[in-house]
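Lecture notes, unit on binding sites. The following record was shown on slide 14. It pairs a sequence with adenosine-5'-triphosphate.
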Amino acid sequence: MRHSYGSSPALAGVDLAVPAGQSVAVTGRSGSGKTTLLYCLAGIVRPTSGSVHVGGENIVGLDDAEASRMRATKLGFVFQFGELVAELDLRENVALPLRLAGVRRRAARARTDDVLRRLDIADVAERRPGEVSGGQAQRAAVGRALVHRPGLVLADEPTGSLDSANRDIVLRALLSLASDVGSAVVLVTHEAAVARHCARRVELVDGQVAGDVERTAG
Ligand SMILES: Nc1ncnc2c1ncn2[C@@H]1O[C@H](COP(=O)(O)OP(=O)(O)OP(=O)(O)O)[C@@H](O)[C@H]1O
Ligand SMILES: [Mg+2]
């Protein structure tokens, strides 16, 4: 896959396959193409050339409505600052993807409460994002990314706004919930301490894969 904004290449031939359930950290210097890669995987940016297959479907061929549907059903997102809806409480925020998917209220409630419990934020589920700690809010963002059991979760510096203790709590929550649900995770980060949580590390240099290392088990 290649992508250029105007004349300068941001991705210069990236060939990457992420097996179901795998967690991959994408690292690299500022400007190396990490966010561009994530956006191409999400169908938000259409690569200049190449294809992107998510769950057997080439998303480069989708129109905008189809791409939105694919994102809503097959993907989950976590961003640096959570991006929760300020007017909704944590439970309502986590439940959003299920509401969008038309899951019935009672089934959605059961699934949402299960996720809140696993993330250890059930006790603050009725509070709004502004009324909880940064770590709790970010765990709710993790819940929202996984509640609909997407095949792939895309995370861009998901713990960039947290201290190291909360960083590790949120990452463990993200990766264990993803593993329970069977979701693959592609996580962009500057920090080696974050990358270490993932089973595989892919390093980008100038829009190309310069390193690809799988952690050996144990
Ligand atoms: N919308 C855009 N228009 C033009 N150029 C862009 C745009 N977005 C990114 N670029 C350029 O593409 C290259 C890759 O950018 P990208 O945002 O993917 O980097 P990154 O690795 O995510 O960096 P950072 O760690 O700072 O977030 C950079 O040279 C950047 O300047
Ligand atoms: Mg970026």
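Take-home: The chain has one domain: 2-214.
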